[in-house]
Automatic annotation (TrEMBL):
Name of the protein: Alpha/beta hydrolase
UniProt keyword Hydrolase present: yes
MF annotations from Gene Ontology: hydrolase activity
Pfam families: Abhydrolase_1 (PF00561)
Record keywords: Hydrolase
Species, as recorded: Rhodococcus oryzae
SUPFAM superfamilies according to UniProt: alpha/beta-Hydrolases
InterPro entries referenced in this protein's UniProt entry, alphabetically: AB_hydrolase, AB_hydrolase_1, AB_hydrolase_fold
Coiled coil: none
Ranges of residues in domain AB hydrolase-1: 41-270
Amino acid sequence: MSTTSNEPVITSYAEAPTRAITAGGATYAYRELGPKGDIPVVFFVHLAATLDNWDPRIVDPIAQNRHVITFDQRGVGASTGKVPATLEEAADHAYEFITALGFEKIDIFSFSMGGFIAQDLIVKHPDLVRKLVLTGTGPRGGTDIDKVVALTYWDILRATLTRSDPKEFLFFKRDAIGKRAAKAFVKRLEERIVDRDKPISIMALRTQLKAIQKFGRSAPSDLSTFTQPTLIANGDNDRMVPSVLSEDLHRRIKGSELIIYPDSGHGGIFQFHENFAPIAAEFLAG
């Protein structure tokens, strides 16, 4: 999977072509950018998200030096198949996608629900992942993860009434700084003009929410077995996946690094992208 010398290296997520690969009877939509030939960084996305939901200010700095792959889970965006009823099954699908591309070793960058899936993947395939980034996320069985369903529906309603994007409420504090950061984030997600992904369906969103609820209400995984270098980050005021769960992950994963950003919510890494992106890129380097 190395790049030929005459093939230009794309390092802008807005310009990354959308590709497709079929595995297990489903076709997975994905995008890739950055220099190929090394272990890729696979991005695991959040609830209700498609390929278009990654902040280019996070992706692009990492893609300067690393092969980056983003993908739609089954039944989401341009991927076919059925949205899985559990996140363990979503992890199985992620493994199916990664191995179909021919990779035996990857690094992971995950956010929110993507972090839940990444943990389940490592529990089943401990040797697959070399380095791990967990942002805005928490452990299986984590306190109050199951409350995300009611919170999400409430914030979708608030967003509808104010003609806003639900992520402005779900990811950011509703103070002046948070509101500005939210608008800037949503605007960055619109930088890609061509070949945009299909938004998630209401049915798919409901299925994902139920899967998260099950994850929150199930027995914890043993994360003491995780040996890969791990970077954990969040805002200090996360309403979706309570910030204390990032500290919980930090305690459970030996040798992990923890960053908590002040006066920010679930999308703290997006609000503080100028600080976080270089840290994540350096952590994933080499």
